[in-house]
Amino acid sequence: MSNNLNTQSEMPEPQPKKKRPSVLRLVLTTFAAAFGVQNQENLEEDFSQKSPIPYIIMGVVFTMIFVITVVSVAKYAIS
Q: Most C-beta atoms within 10 A of its C-beta, which of 1, 30, 44, 45?
């Protein structure tokens, strides 16, 4: 009988819901990843999110802006 009483205390606590990352957080994470300066704590927090989609979208947007900037600077330097 004492075994039944202990089952309630042995149940794992529910995990708190993860908040979606803010736009600022996504931008900072993208810059840190692009330059390779992300610290371990932030990396673990980013990978603990439910969906990687916001990070993928921000990475694609950052890459497009970066490529456009490099091409524009190269065209300006040549002309």
A: 30
